[in-house]
Design goal:
Mean pLDDT: 86
Number of strands: 0
Helix content: 55-70%
Structural class: mainly alpha
Largest sheet: none
Number of helices: 12
Strand content: under 5%
């Protein structure tokens, strides 16, 4: 790739893999000691931040300083916000039922099974999804129109996710909403504003790596994998399967977009949503 030094790229790719692995292994030790594997969801955002900071440091003197800093900072802001949100949401709660069910079905040693299926898998996904960050910090060209568009898309995604999270938290904090589905604000336009926000974030970061055709092709796997996880893998599909039998969820689903925001359809006459407004597990992919 003419725009990126191949030797430094190899160094950044290797270091990023080691950083993601280290974060997940430390989290594994903590989660095993506490008997609480749900903390890996917090580590998801932390690992992206650590990779971004490490790549920023290693790319010093190689990539354009402004592009390098903007990409690393954008990734870190997203990752830390997500980690803090999940940590606050899970405070005082026990094990995530998904992990409890997975470990109950594990063949052999459940701890080793969790290491492979929860921690190492997510560490590999962190490395793969963060490819645009690892590459963009090394691009010597200054920010261009495509990168600026990416920054706008990233900002829109971060805002969409953060506002959706805040709206849901306020909704669930009101005892009057117990037994009801969250169908207000952004949640009336899409059933998954958090996942749609993440979708925009990673397509935005990808655009920041599209300075040349080689860098665009190399990093395209990142937003494609994240999109697949959000829509067909760990995000939308699993949450909707979990919510399918909740009272009123079918009516909410019928009038509200499944992913891309749009104005809600008129509710079916005589029906009103009911349920618990559960969001699900954020964006980090669950065990397969």
């Amino acid at each position: 790739m003419s725009a990126v030094d191949a030797g430094t790229l190899g160094l950044v790719l290797g270091a990023s893999a080691a950083i993601a692995l280290t974060v997940m292994l430390v989290t594994f030790v903590i989660g095993t000691a506490r008997g609480l594997h749900r903390i890996v969801d917090v580590a998801w955002g932390v690992a992206f931040t650590a990779v971004a900071v490490g790549a920023w440091f290693l790319a010093a003197g190689q990539g354009d300083d402004v592009r390098r800093t903007v990409v690393a900072l954008a990734t870190s802001v997203w990752g830390l916000r997500l980690a803090i949100h999940i940590a606050r949401r899970g405070r005082g709660h026990g094990e995530d039922p998904r992990y409890a069910r997975m470990l109950a079905r594990a063949r052999g040693n459940p701890t080793l099974y969790a290491l492979w299926k929860v921690y190492l898998l997510q560490g590999a996904l962190v490395w793969l999804v963060s490819l645009p960050v690892q590459v963009a910090v090394l691009i010597p060209a200054p920010l261009d129109a495509t990168a600026c568009l990416g920054l706008v898309v990233w900002a829109a995604g971060l805002a969409f996710e953060a506002v959706g999270d805040r709206q849901l938290a306020l909704f669930k904090a009101d005892p009057a909403n117990r037994g009801r589905v969250m169908d207000r604000g952004l949640w009336s336009w899409t059933r998954h504003p958090n996942y749609f926000g993440d979708f925009l974030v990673w397509w935005g970061l990808y655009l920041m790596a599209c300075a040349t055709w080689p860098t665009a092709v190399l990093t395209l796997v990142s937003p494609l994998v994240m999109s697949a996880l959000l829509i067909w893998g760990s995000g939308k599909r699993l949450l909707e399967a979990h919510m399918a039998d909740r009272p009123g969820y079918a009516a909410y689903r019928a009038r509200t977009s499944g992913f891309v925001p749009r104005p809600p359809r008129r509710p079916t006459e005589g029906k009103r949503a009911g349920g618990d407004g559960t969001r699900g597990r954020e964006t980090s992919p669950p065990p397969v």
